[in-house]
Known about the structure:
Blueprint: E1 8-16, E2 22-30, E3 39-48, H1 50-56, E4 73-81, E5 91-95, E6 110-113, E7 119-120, H2 127-149, E8 159-161, H3 167-178, E9 183-187, H4 193-199, E10 203-206, E11 225-228, H5 232-240, E12 247-250, H6 264-269, E13 272-275, H7 283-296, E14 306-310, H8 315-322, E15 329-333
Parallel strand pairs: 8-9, 8-11, 9-10, 11-12, 12-13, 14-15
Antiparallel strand pairs: 1-2, 3-4, 3-6, 3-15, 4-5, 5-7
The chain binds NADP nicotinamide-adenine-dinucleotide phosphate (NAP).
Amino acid sequence: MKTEIPETFHAWVVREASDGSFSRKLESCRMHDLPEGDVLIRVEYSSVNYKDVLSMSGNKGVTRQYPHTPGIDAAGVVVESKTSAFSSGTGVAVTGYDLGMNTHGGLGQFIRVPADWVVPLPAGLTARDAMVFGTAGFTAALSVRALRHGGATPEQGDVLVTGASGGVGCLAVFLLAKSGFRVVASSGKAEAHDMLSALGAAEIVARDAVLADRKRPLLKTRWAHVIDTVGGDFLESALRATAPNGVVTSCGMVASAELNTNVFPFILRGICLQGIDSATTRMTRRLETWEHLAAAASSDALAHLVTEVTLDEIETVIQSMGEGKSIGRTLVRIP
Ligand SMILES: NC(=O)c1ccc[n+]([C@@H]2O[C@H](COP(=O)([O-])OP(=O)(O)OC[C@H]3O[C@@H](n4cnc5c(N)ncnc54)[C@H](OP(=O)(O)O)[C@@H]3O)[C@@H](O)[C@H]2O)c1
């Protein structure tokens, strides 16, 4: 199927002014300004992730050079391909690698990327389904995989998920509950309780209820395993309250990028602290993980966590996520 390729298209562009301030707006971009790449994709859906908020706000740790189009997630249709691995009309998704960081990202109508970043959508998974998960769901799935890989089974006890109302958190709750784990969701938002229960959380605790007394090197064990999405004191407390041989995963730093801890969880309880980096996951594991997500995509429970907006409606989403107020996943529909 041949799609006509326009000379211009719409995308969010963040610009840096000479005084160091940043501004962003939806602009008309030229197709020939897209970076070189093997595969040109018409984006049908993107989503909003915390990293997009950082890139949208001029965070140079995420995006070194502006002007820039953020968007670490994109799903849509191949319209032009320099490689036989993809043909026009194929449904695909791109998450991670450098997309939306220093490469023109998914918050626009087109992306052009290297072929080895592109995942063909598993059978039955639409572009929209793929973006319900996006980088957040992919990261949640990698975190659950890390627990399993470390020997976690549902009989061992409660699994704590921190930042549970966020994108990674709520999908971790969903995937764990679906696999039979008893999930304790920690959240700072009373208004997210119904969603978390619908996703399968057995218990919901206040955000601060998982923070622990700083003086004691080890705490009474509360969790068999932990998926931490916020870092800082939350991760540190989780390490000290996890039962022997538990796995604690770390993927995020919404609370803090600092980790002050001691060696006792590791040398007296055999705790495994497993880092998760979704962006650099190699392709074999990436394809395997997308197959697992595709198998979970038909669940009615997912409807509870999705808000859908259009490209010109994302400003308020960026602001509320930046303030830690967003709930669930926000899909961006791109006409
Ligand atoms: N390593 C990777 O590959 C990878 C991939 C994806 C995301 N991440 C990282 O994972 C983190 C979560 O991403 P996301 O997309 O799920 O973000 P998100 O949707 O904004 O969710 C973050 C959640 O953290 C909680 N939170 C917010 N501010 C907090 C604070 N000051 N202290 C404690 N908790 C706070 C909130 O949940 P409650 O109100 O329910 O507590 C919030 O909903 C981010 O740091 C992101 O960069 C990493």
